[in-house]
Amino acid sequence: MGDAGIEEPMMNGSRASGTAVPDGRPVPAGRLVILLGPAVLVVGLLFVGGLVLGVLQALGYAPGQGAASLTVEHFRRVLVDPELFTSFALTFYIAATSTIIAGLVSVALALTLVSLESRSRMVSFLLQIPLTVPHLVIAIAVLFLLTPSGLVARALSSLGLLAEAASFPLLVNDRFGIGILAVYVWKEIPFITLMLLAVLKNMGKELLEAGATLRANARQRFFHITLPIITPVLAASGLIVFAFTFGAFEVPYLLGRTHPLLLPVWSYRTYSDIDLLARPEGIAIGLLIAAIIIIAVGCSQMVLTLVRYREGER
């Protein structure tokens, strides 16, 4: 009882003034501020400073150009522009479709690899390799592979499967964004799969074995045991992937069509227009993208917080 009486105030004190490292030792709040303060300060200045500067410019505040007053006219022009709905729908389609495909493939891949990984760590290592390759590199690879003049079209033509390379279906700069989807799906599958693998390894086999003893088949064990456990992490990682693809610029700029444009490309081209008066509208589009990304990331954090809260109640 004496030990418990000593440990309880320490735990309460750590919750009040700091947190604990994985080995259980409490870390004072002051030390956390010293350790994290410089990094938080730099990130805060860069992010918040850039955001405030962007908001001011989107509101037309440019003292160097003789515009010292604030106006919402640039936001109004963007919101009433008929191109906004088309660009938003196309951006949402690309982000949602690539996220759903990557999520479904990742679930199947994680379930397959969770048994193989116990016999070999090479599987986990191979899965991490695509994470280190930049999106732009994959986009250029898709450009060389899937265009009508690309390697795949030439190989099929050489094998006699195509009359000529030019008859290869248009998979890049196409209306459905197949080339863009291919890049995002290829890049995001390893990220979601690694997240799911961590959950599946911690889940263990006891619940599945208990389900098997109750004569539940493989389908029932998946939908009633495995899927409810991995759903929170799958939803959180999916929202993170959605937020990234929604605001990504380089891949749709390289592999997308010239019209309609995805929101990030539209924002860039408006901002880089030779007409300097169009810059505030480009920034306003960028702020709309940032707002949607912040909402998606906030939803992801809410899902993770809810999971931790439910685990804490058990």
Walk me through this protein's architecture.
There is one protein chain. Helix 4 crosses helix 8 (178-203) and helix 6 crosses helix 8 (178-203). It is built from 13 helices and 2 strands. The chain has helices at 2-17, 29-58, 73-80, 82-116, 122-128, 135-146, 151-158, 178-203, 206-213, 218-247, 250-255, 263-271, 279-313, and strands spanning 18-20, 26-28. Mean pLDDT is 83; it is low at 1-18. A hairpin with a 5-residue loop joins strand 1 and strand 2.
Short key terms for the protein model shown above:
314 residues; globular; disordered N terminus; two-stranded antiparallel sheet; mainly alpha
Briefly, what is this?
It contains 13 helices and 2 strands. The protein has 314 residues and is an all-alpha fold. The two termini are 24 Å apart.
List the helices and strands and how they pair.
Elements (H helix, E strand, L loop, with lengths): L1 H16 E3 L5 E3 H30 L14 H8 L1 H35 L5 H7 L6 H12 L4 H8 L19 H26 L2 H8 L4 H30 L2 H6 L7 H9 L7 H35 L1
Antiparallel strand pairs: 1-2
Helix pairs in contact: 2-13, 3-13, 4-8, 4-10, 6-8, 8-10, 9-10, 10-13, 12-13
Structural class based on helices, strands and sheet pairing = mainly alpha
Average of the residue pLDDT scores: 83
- Major sheet description: 2 strands, antiparallel
- Using DSSP, what is the number of strands? 2
